[in-house]
Amino acid sequence: FPMRQSITCAFISHYVWFSSYYSIWGDASVKVFCISDLHGEWDLYLKAIEVMEAIANDEGWHCYCLGDVVDRGEEGYKILCNILFDPRFTLLRGNHEELFLDTLEHFSEWDEDQKRFLLKELQEHPNDAMSWAFPLYAVNGGTPTFMAWLRNPRAIQGLRKKLRELPLRASYNQYDMCHSGCSIEEWDSSTPAPAN
Predict the structure, then answer these.
(1) How far apart are the first and last CA of the chain?
(2) Are 63 and 88 spatial neighbours (Cβ–Cβ below 8 Å)?
(3) What is the C-alpha separation between 16 and 31, in angstroms, rounded?
(4) Around Cβ 61, how many Cβ atoms within 10 Å?
(5) How many CB atoms lie under 10 A from the CB of residue 20?
(6) 3-class secondary structure for 39-102?
(7) 84 and 101 Cβ atoms separated by less than 8 Å
(8) Which residue of 46, 76, 118, 193 has the fewest C-beta atoms within 10 A of its own C-beta?
(9) What letter would DSSP give residue 109?
(10) How far apart are alpha carbons 134 and 104 in whole angstroms?
């Protein structure tokens, strides 16, 4: 990234805070940050907010979250609920949001007997039940997110629609952002997040 002054971008990736903060975007009235791959780590999410608020001081801030807030950690659904309704965040769809959406859509197609059977199995053996019901999602750490959703499916009204509408990419000034794994075809056919 070319360096500019006055806007700070902090990167969180796979649970690691890089010790340097890069000033790359230039509007003195707001600090702009990027984070990625929170993967259900509530403490990391709170630390990110704490650091952004400290760096922004009283100037205000906006954060582009480049996907993968759900799965693996225990609080992915809670982070998703918070970020979706916090106007300081723009959430892009990562592969784990995509997997969660696919799982919800597949589950919605099941008949009531299948759902009851799965719910009973999930209470007794959650990891085993997820492994046979949604093997790809289970192996990618989706069990905690799916279980949290089952406990509170109405926390986000229209969740599947909101997940489907998450942008794959965003642009800020001359910078383009996306979660890794976004193909050129997906990039070209997608609409960027609205500018903030």
Answers:
(1) 20
(2) yes
(3) 21
(4) 20
(5) 7
(6) CCCHHHHHHHHHHHHHHHCCCCEEEEECCCCCCCCCCHHHHHHHHHCCCCEEECCCHHHHHHHH
(7) no
(8) 46
(9) T
(10) 10
More confident position, 27 or 158: 158
- pLDDT-derived band of residue 196, with 50, 70 and 90 as boundaries? low
Are 173 and 26 in contact by the 8 Å Cβ rule? The answer is yes
Mean pLDDT of the chain: 83
Give me the phi and psi of 100, to 5 degrees please: -60, -45
Helix (H) or strand (E) holding 37: none
Q: Quote the pTM value.
A: 0.83
pLDDT in tens, 69-82: 999 999 999 999 99
Q: Residue by residue, what is the 3-state secondary structure of 157-175? A: CCHHHHHHHCCCEEEECCE
Give yes or no for residue 16 having a pLDDT over 50.
Answer: no
